[in-house]
């Protein structure tokens, strides 16, 4: 239960609901909202359900049809994502002009940030692959193939959106046995091919303890043809990616770390007078007559300068 606007929550459940929607320093896994438009073909709905199975349990699917045209009026979609606390969304639709249409996007502070429209082609269901599937909730390994993901502005933003949607929780270390699922995105001209694989650990031929890695396609397999897009401005995108100061790790002065994790510290030493350093008294290191005379002259000049300064200070 959530209280009315401008009033404090009256129940503990209402307070928890408000605190859950408040912004946090470290955000959890982003929820994704899956929904259907006023018309949706079987093909595009099946694609959406397969992607929903990959995203579970951090996903919410709405079975009721919604008369929403996001590229004409995005307000109803923003209201739905805000209601279900899901900053990511995927919408299936179908019409004569744009058949088998899939709209993928995300919001920032309950307003639209990025949105891309794809056409579905060459689709193979997950059920068509008669192999063992992965367990639900496994963090996938995301692989992006193709130069367009590094050179084209639109494909760079699409890559960022796919990472945002499928990355799940952040981890610093992972075991080899923890790698079970691979999602491969291949960029071609005007399309992105998506393939899903299961990683198999087999016994290596040699005496090595490292197992032999093999992959097996488990589906779905689909080609997404790029149609319309609506990207946020550079200023808004930078603001959405900005990290709070409390989360940033402060860099310690004079301390560095190499790739192997060894910590080094640097010490700053003042200028040293090499003439006063005591060295071994060897014949080869003794000063010559000319060096002795020059050092004596230097000392006399220093003494005279000091006397002049003292006289000036006294007067």
UniProtKB/TrEMBL annotation:
<dbReference type="GO" id="GO:0000027">
    <property type="term" value="P:ribosomal large subunit assembly"/>
</dbReference>
<feature type="domain" description="Brix">
    <location>
        <begin position="30"/>
        <end position="235"/>
    </location>
</feature>
<protein>
    <recommendedName>
        <fullName>Ribosome production factor 2 homolog</fullName>
    </recommendedName>
</protein>
<keyword id="KW-0539">Nucleus</keyword>
<dbReference type="InterPro" id="IPR007109">
    <property type="entry name" value="Brix"/>
</dbReference>
<feature type="region of interest" description="Disordered">
    <location>
        <begin position="283"/>
        <end position="315"/>
    </location>
</feature>
<dbReference type="GO" id="GO:0000463">
    <property type="term" value="P:maturation of LSU-rRNA from tricistronic rRNA transcript (SSU-rRNA, 5.8S rRNA, LSU-rRNA)"/>
</dbReference>
<feature type="compositionally biased region" description="Basic and acidic residues">
    <location>
        <begin position="288"/>
        <end position="315"/>
    </location>
</feature>
<comment type="similarity">
    <text>Belongs to the RPF2 family.</text>
</comment>
<dbReference type="GO" id="GO:0019843">
    <property type="term" value="F:rRNA binding"/>
</dbReference>
<dbReference type="InterPro" id="IPR039770">
    <property type="entry name" value="Rpf2"/>
</dbReference>
<dbReference type="Pfam" id="PF04427">
    <property type="entry name" value="Brix"/>
</dbReference>
<dbReference type="GO" id="GO:0005730">
    <property type="term" value="C:nucleolus"/>
</dbReference>
């Amino acid at each position: 239960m959530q209280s009315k606007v401008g009033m404090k929550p009256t129940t503990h459940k209402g307070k928890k609901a408000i605190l859950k929607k408040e912004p946090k320093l470290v955000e959890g896994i982003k929820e994704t909202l899956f929904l259907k438009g006023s018309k949706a073909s079987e093909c595009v709905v099946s694609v959406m359900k397969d992607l929903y199975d990959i995203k579970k349990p951090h996903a919410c699917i709405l079975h009721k049809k919604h008369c929403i045209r996001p590229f004409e009026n995005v307000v109803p979609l923003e209201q739905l994502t805000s209601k279900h606390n899901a900053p990511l969304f995927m919408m299936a639709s179908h019409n004569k002009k744009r058949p088998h249409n899939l709209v993928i996007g995300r919001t920032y502070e309950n307003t639209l940030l990025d949105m891309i429209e794809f056409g579905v082609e060459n689709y193979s269901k997950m059920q068509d692959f008669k192999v063992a599937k992965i367990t639900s909730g496994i963090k996938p390994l995301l692989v992006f193939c193709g130069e367009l993901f590094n050179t084209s502005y639109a494909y760079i933003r699409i890559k960022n959106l796919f990472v945002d949607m499928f990355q799940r929780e952040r981890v610093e270390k992972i075991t080899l046995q923890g790698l079970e699922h691979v999602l491969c995105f291949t960029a071609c001209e005007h399309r992105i091919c998506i393939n899903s694989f299961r990683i198999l650990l087999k016994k290596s031929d040699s005496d090595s303890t490292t197992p032999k890695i093999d992959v097996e396609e488990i589906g779905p397999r689909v080609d997404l043809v790029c149609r319309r897009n609506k990207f946020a401005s550079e200023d808004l995108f930078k603001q959405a990616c900005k990290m709070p100061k409390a989360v940033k790790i402060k860099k310690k002065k004079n301390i560095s770390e190499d790739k192997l994790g060894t910590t080094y510290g640097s010490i700053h030493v003042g200028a040293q007078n090499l003439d006063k350093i005591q060295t071994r008294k060897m014949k080869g290191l003794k000063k010559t007559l000319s060096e002795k005379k020059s050092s004596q002259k230097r000392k006399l000049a220093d003494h005279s300068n000091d006397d002049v300064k003292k006289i000036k200070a006294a007067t």
